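Q: Here's a chain of 289 amino acids. Please give me its 3D structure as tokens.
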Amino acid sequence: MPNSIPQLSFEFFPPRSDEQRVNFERARDRLAALSPAYMSVTFGAGGSTRDRTRETVLGIAEATGIEAAPHISCMAESDEDIVALLDGYQAHGIGRLVVLRGDRPSGSGAGVFPYAVDLVRFIRKRYGDAFRIEVACYPEHHPESRTPYDDLKHFQAKVAAGADGAITQYFFSAESYFRFVDEAHSLGVDVPIVPGIMPITNYTGLARFSQMCGAEIPLWIAKRLKAWDDAGDRESIVAFGEEVVTGLCRRLLDGGAPGLHFYTLNRARATLALCRNLGLEPRRAATGS
């Protein structure tokens, strides 16, 4: 593994209930012990969680002192909505954004900006370098794109518009990441491309979400997970998932990936186990749920 310490970042969703809030805060505090570069907070379809996203972002910054990065979606009703949101974040010292097109709510059309590249361009024009901007990219295939090359060109355009870095959709094949990075570099893209990592703790939810977002679960992994799921053997799923994803992360870091971005699902245990296996967990980090 390279001598330099890789950048860690963790993604959360805004809790919807008191019980979810307790789980989130427990996970947030346990993962904060790993001193990540930042923690990001998702944005619901059509901006449906805007207030809760804002509350969660400001809570992370206040409770942990770690940089918090809200997801900013194109699915706003007007330029003024975006400006009000960003002005508010800027006033609270938030300096990093994850800029996405965002999911369209059912039955709804596009937001004020058709694509993430348009929102990146708008933010750069209005705010200059006030925000560090992360964008998404897809080493395998965005489900709405015509070809992988189209995906790559969309990513190149977002970087040209002012993105500082990128987070990938999760994947389970290191080769897809390395090929994507090589192809991006061949087009002159030189920002850090951080692989998104999904811990495996169940099969049903992973299979459903992977189908929605276009992430491929290799057959040799899917068959084992489904067999254990059918047998109700969650312990084997968790142990196998930890082994598989640890190996993936090791290969990514050994191959030069600049860091790892974990999709935590507001739980700490699986992510902490992966970081411990990789030698990235400080002694003070607990291993609770």
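Q: Can you summarize the key feature?
A: The radius of gyration is 18 Å.
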